[in-house]
Amino acid sequence: MKDIASMTIYQVYPRSFYDTNKDGVGDIPGVTAKLDYIQSLGIQMIWINPFYPSPQNDNGYDISNYTAIDPLFGTMADFEELVSEAKKRQMGIMIDLVLNHTSTEHEWFQKALAGDPYYRDFYYFREGRSDGSAPTNWESKFGGSAWEKLPNKNEYYLHLYDVTQADLNWENRNVRQALYDVVHFWMTKGVSGFRLDVLNVISKPARFEDDLLGDGKRFYTDGPKIHHYLKELHASTFGPLSLVTVGEMSSTNVENCIRYSNPNEKELNMVFHFHHLKVDYKDGKKWQLDRVRFAELKELFHSWQIEMADGGGWDALFWNNHDQPRALGRFVSDKSEYHYQAATLLAATIHFMRGTPYVYMGEEIGMINPKFTEIDKYRDIETINHYNILQNDGFTEQETMNIIKERSRDNSRIPMQWDSSHYAGFSSVEPFYPISDSKKWINVAESVTNEQSIFYFYKKLIQLRKELDVIQKGSYIPLYLEQERVISYLRKNDTTELLTIHYYGEEPVQLQLPDHFLEAEILLSNSDRQELTKQIKLKPYETLAVIRQD
């Protein structure tokens, strides 16, 4: 296995990365065409969102064929070329697999519907109640019942997500073996890693019953056999080759994440969890705006860092992905006057932490949410549904659009801004997703020619992680807990101390440095700080890393 402690991973949403065949949709050859750019950041691995055949009801996470390429994105030969060209540049390709469910268009489900007993046991088919209602009161994560009734029968199938995503029955050894065969197929194609979608919900209870306390989530989240299944998956597939693995863990807890990612458990290398991205949800609801509860954010970062380290677990560190609005403008200002400081502050906050950082495409140049003002600019089905739901709940058109501008997943899915041309250098034709006006001042072409840009700050962070053992493996000690808008921590090993200070405010604030850091070296600053004094005045969105060695 590559050393995940020194690694930084770059996420590509292929539909919006780069279009080579002039159809308005990014493709696999588009990733290959930009490998030199990704390599120039210092990246060691590229995670690519799903590119399999799919009806695209859930953005490709509804897979209808696990071992093929959707023509929308290219061919298998294109993928093989991508893997080969990436390896030439000392980079690996991580693919995105969904092992909890398939599309209802998948051959397995179609055979199950046709009555094939072998494939019927691949899924959860259950009789409805005597009155014809669903077997349990569980709710889908996409809204409504988690059970869909079959036509002309009092029979239902389970779908924790979209109605076209039928949950697979991991209790069936044949299901597990079929999925292991899928993993082996891609291993033979030369992939170096796997990002495993909603992995901690694959284990369902032995008996299905109503949830009298909630929506059913507690019965299958980090389910009864989850660790058994992951150990078997590890032993049967990627474990012997020590490939890089990360699991997306929904509504999980730190105790389970330690087990998922502790090397001694032989399950996964690292985990995604999302608690820090819910600190601006009002009453826990995504589609209601609230101010960022900064104290909660700070506590989550510190507590997870300490507990994961104490338990030998490993974090995937991230602010952005294809399902989240951009962090820039969400946790800090996206005003042009603070653009550099705010973007670099976010980056440094997590890149000095213990774990493996992920950079979502465009993050390294400071891309911001487009804030489209008309609903017809949005493509995401979740956004369009909530445009209607919010107004039915009494919000005005303006209030609804204000929420959508902040919350829509399309915020992160708009095309990568390569230059300031009409279609941002993404394509020569109109793209599937609209282009943001910010392309005029936020784009790759300008970033790579300016050594004081956000791009070069990211490059420095990625290089420091490769070079400094204290970043990779040092202990984590929270500091300045009394400072409301400061996230600060000390990374420490036997020879080195690294003090990092990250200020999430716009009004200058005073801090007092520990005496033994007054003669330390400034490792990185986004404010051009040249010297250290006992009292330092932090500038708006300042980030500072100071290092001393014995």
Task: Describe what this molecule looks like in 3D.
- By secondary structure, the protein is an alpha/beta fold.
- It has four domains: 4-102 and 172-371 and 411-458, Alpha-Beta Barrel (TIM Barrel), CATH 3.20.20.80; 124-167, Oligo-1,6-glucosidase, Domain 2 (Oligo-1,6-glucosidase, domain 2, Alpha-Beta Complex); 372-410, no CATH class; 475-549, Immunoglobulin-like.
- The protein is built from 17 helices and 22 strands.
- α11 (339-351) links the parallel β14 (316-317) and β15.
- The protein is globular and about 75 Å long.
- The two termini are 31 Å apart.
- 46% of the residues are buried.
- The model has no long low-confidence stretch (mean pLDDT 96).
Number of helices: 17
Largest sheet: 8 strands, parallel
CATH architecture descriptor text of the largest domain: Alpha-Beta Barrel
User: Fraction of residues in helices?
Assistant: 25-40%
Shape label:
globular
Radius of gyration computed on alpha carbons: 24 Å
CATH fold type of the largest domain: TIM Barrel
Class of the largest domain, according to the CATH hierarchy? Answer: Alpha Beta
Strand order, main sheet: write it out: 11-10-9-3-2-1-15-14
Tell me the name of the CATH homologous superfamily of the largest domain.
Glycosidases
Q: Number of domains in the coordinates?
A: 4
* Mean pLDDT rating: 96
**Low-pLDDT segments:** none
The class by helix and strand makeup works out as alpha/beta
Distance between the termini: 31 Å
Number of DSSP E strands: 22
